[in-house]
Amino acid sequence: MCTNKNLLLISIVLTALCLLQFGEAIPSIGHYGKRFDPMGGIDFIQICLNNCAQCKKMFGDYFQGQTCAESCLKFKGKAIPDCEDLGSIAPFINALE
């Protein structure tokens, strides 16, 4: 007969097995030590280049997209620009006069 303790034990074991099976499928973007995550398919250089292109679309001539893209390649995607974070895109902003 199934008691509450048995049901609880079964649910805990099934949850642990699911976490072991599918835990690696969730990519971790916050880990900047790797430039490519083969399990999650994350390519940090590509993310960096895409963000440069997005910032160029948003800011137009005020944003140096070419310089941003070159820094992505030079630093292998270690510093990914965020268009809403002035600190991350400050090196690529120019003042038009």
Automatic annotation (TrEMBL):
InterPro entries: Eclosion
Entry keyword set: Disulfide bond, Hormone, Neuropeptide, Secreted, Signal
UniProt feature coiled coil, ranges: none
GO molecular function, one term: ecdysis-triggering hormone activity
Biological processes annotated in GO: ecdysis, chitin-based cuticle; neuropeptide signaling pathway
GO cellular component: extracellular region
UniProt similarity note: Belongs to the insect eclosion hormone family.
Protein name: Eclosion hormone
Organism: Drosophila grimshawi (Hawaiian fruit fly)
Name of the gene: Dgri\GH17491
